Amino acid sequence: MTRRQRRWPIHLALIAVCFVMLVPFYWVLKTSISGENIFSYPPSIVPRDPQPFYYVDVWYAIPFARYFLNSVVVSILTIVANVVLNAMAGYSLTQTFPGKQIVLMLFLSCMMIPFQATIIPAYLITGKLGLLDSYLGLALPMFSTIICIFVFKASFDAVPRSLIDAARVDGLSEWRIIWKVMMPLAKSAVATNVILSFIWSWNNFMWPLIATRSQDMQTLPLGLARFISYQEDTTGALYAFCIMVLAPGILLFLLAQKEFVQGLTTGATKG
Amino acid sequence: MSIRDDPAAPRWRRWLLNRFVLVPGTLAIIAIVWNAWVFTHNHGKIAGRVVDASGRAVEGAEVKLWVFNFTTFVEQASTQSKSDGSFQFTSNPSHNIQLSAEKPGVGRSRIPVRLYFQSEDLTLKQPLQLTEAATEGK
């Protein structure tokens, strides 16, 4: 039996799993162009009378462009801050310093605290800084995430120590070592940070709900909630809205999936 | 090896010819072209014809433009069809409208019209056909 023949049951199982996972996406896409009632029986696999007008309805029913812009600005701030701050934190954790184990334990234990538990302090701090109802305030609690710090740490750990020593001998400061030596070698970790921070920021509902006061500062997830409260017959338009919210994240993931997977597995084979 | 990883390729090609630039760039071009199209075709003109059941032009039919206003359609404007049955509105602000036409003794008609953007200029391909059946059906 050849290697290919031995693998076909695995591929068959993977295709079945892919099918199960993709059906909901297909259903949302189909409903967004057909507006078909989700309870209709028998359900149609192929959309009946497909048309794009539910997307037009969404665009004009709420200030979609404004919400989109807000989400984009907040996501860009979050991505930039995550890449910079997490790289610095990840690099520091590759160094030897007193109390390193305690810091690591602190980070790991903080991962167990849900954001909902820290939301009141986060609100008070953001309020004291005068950043409520601003882009910076919306992005602030997501400026650094512990998982992404460890992604950078794993990536930096894989860089040979001799390379860092050589950079030091050449007179580079620690700051320049991060940006000139480590970061070019950690592209997959950067991609992982970009994707994860983007998705978390893009889909965040709770914090923007609390931190925004004016309608002009609301992001897409809040717009979705508002849209549901507006419309009576929401089937087609609601699903169209979901597609419009999901599309940027899916596109970003598809663009950087190779680097994303590399970033998550960096250090996994480190002996 | 992709051009992005090829060290022999010129730097500008490595920066420009990769999926992280090409995909957003293509989307940006599509958005610009679409907005240019919208900008040049959003004068709110809706034109069409009114005919009777046998397909002859109907003069003097009252044609109304209905605009969707959150939950229902409200009348936005009205006009009379000309001798060749043609009519035109120049102030449509919406993307979700209905057109109705009526002439006593001939009949009435009402059709929904969906547009790709607000105030899109449109000439109806199918005329508004007045029928007694539509009158009775009301």
**What structural category characterises the helix and strand content of chain B?**
alpha/beta
What is the name of the CATH superfamily of the largest domain in chain B? Carboxypeptidase-like, regulatory domain
Strand content of chain B: 25-35%
Q: What count of helical segments of chain A does DSSP give? A: 13
Specify which chain pair forms the largest interface.
A-B, 10 and 11 residues
The CATH superfamily title of the largest domain in chain A: MetI-like
Overall mean pLDDT of chain B: 88
Beta-strand segment tally of chain A: 0
Q: What is the H/E order of chain A?
A: HHHHHHHHHHHHH
Largest sheet of chain B: 4 strands, mixed
Any low-confidence stretches of chain B, pLDDT <50, length ≥5? none
Number of domains of chain A: 2
Low-confidence stretches of chain A: none
CATH class of the largest domain in chain B: Mainly Beta
Helix vs. strand class of chain A: mainly alpha
Over all CA atoms, what is the radius of gyration of chain A? 23 Å
Organism (chain A): Bradyrhizobium jicamae
Family (chain A): Belongs to the binding-protein-dependent transport system permease family.
Domain ABC transmembrane type-1 (chain A): 68-256
Function (chain A): Part of the ABC transporter complex UgpBAEC involved in sn-glycerol-3-phosphate (G3P) import. Probably responsible for the translocation of the substrate across the membrane.
